[in-house]
Design brief:
about 290 residues; Four Helix Bundle (Hemerythrin (Met), subunit A); binds guanosine-5'-triphosphate; binds magnesium ion
């Protein structure tokens, strides 16, 4: 989107410039709603005063950053970390293959390195290999995994057991891996809402975060999923994965604009270190230089 900078740097936007900006934003997965908002704001500003190119670009960057930071309210500068000396439960949800289990592995690694007492709940009981997969991540990050060895076990029961273990061991961060599910599968979505209810009931004092793992290469399709997950799992944030691939990343703007949820982490690779806390500053600098 580095072309965006040169167009915005040229002063008041004529119709050609607007069309060009619109097409750049849509190609970068920014989505119609957020694109309209950006163009209207830019037009209004540039009509109001003639800005030198650098200032026009600075205005654009600030506009985009403010959009990304809006869901955070006043807590802007606070980095997103589990609270010490209390139980934090992070429920990790999303469609099949979005990167949930990998993200759990990366998060447990960061948490362990940062000195948190951490535990993983293997609540993907849907696929036979899923428990094994999350256990491998647990070994890599040196974090214990609570699983139920039986077949066809109820994932909510695994979560129940894991919360009990977390409470008795003074665990600070419990990461819950869930099965991938499509948002239109009623019974699976009901199962997820049951997991969420168990968490709220069994750990009423815990600090609960419900994170949607979103594959950034899916573009606008990902947003439709997100809307349904948002209600069922009471989402509080989003992890954008696979930003190391072909995705342009504009999806982040669509997510915050349409769902009002903050982006918390970005995944940019398959390795254990390939997860970063989300920073609107870094994100916008990268987006506009790419
Ligand atoms: N390039 C890249 N690949 C990723 C990233 N995150 C996850 N993956 C890959 O995406 C694939 C699916 O990852 P999983 O973590 O198994 O996804 P999941 O959401 O747990 O999948 P299900 O449990 O089957 O729903 C794996 O091949 C991961 O290595 C990322 O940030 N970048
Ligand atoms: Mg998984």
């Amino acid at each position: 989107m580095n072309q965006l900078r040169s167009i915005v740097g040229q002063g008041p936007l004529n119709q050609d410039a607007v069309t060009e900006i619109e097409s750049l934003l849509l190609q970068a997965d920014v989505g119609i709603e957020a694109t309209d908002y950006i163009i209207e704001s830019l037009q209004a500003k540039l009509r109001q005063e003639a800005l030198p190119p650098q200032e026009a670009i600075a205005y654009l960057k600030q506009l985009l950053r403010d959009m990304l930071d809006k869901p955070l309210g006043d807590s802007h500068s606070l980095s997103f970390v589990p609270e010490k000396d209390q139980l934090n439960i992070w429920l990790i949800t999303g469609v099949n293959g979005a990167g949930k289990t990998t993200t759990i592995g990366k998060l447990s690694h960061i948490a362990q390195k940062s000195g948190y007492r951490c535990l993983i709940a293997a609540a993907d009981t849907f696929r036979a290999a899923a428990v094994q997969q999350v256990k491998v991540w647990g070994e890599r990050s040196n974090v214990e995994v609570i699983a139920n060895p039986g077949k066809n076990t109820d994932p909510a029961a695994v979560v129940f057991d894991a919360i009990a273990a977390a409470q008795s061991r003074n665990v600070e961060l419990l990461l819950v891996d869930t099965a991938g599910r499509l948002q239109n599968k009623k019974n699976l979505m009901e199962e997820l809402s049951k997991i969420r209810r168990i968490i709220d009931k069994k750990a009423p004092d815990a600090h609960v975060e419900s994170l949607l793992v979103l594959d950034s290469t899916l573009g606008q399709n990902g947003l439709r999923q997100a809307q349904v997950f948002s209600e069922v799992a009471k989402l509080s944030g989003v992890v954008l994965t696979k930003l190391d691939g072909t995705a342009k990343g504009g999806i982040a703007l669509a997510v915050v604009q349409q769902l009002g949820l903050p982006i918390r982490f970005i995944g940019a690779g398959e390795g254990i270190e390939d997860l970063r806390p989300f920073s609107s500053y870094e994100f916008i600098e990268a987006l506009l230089s790419g």
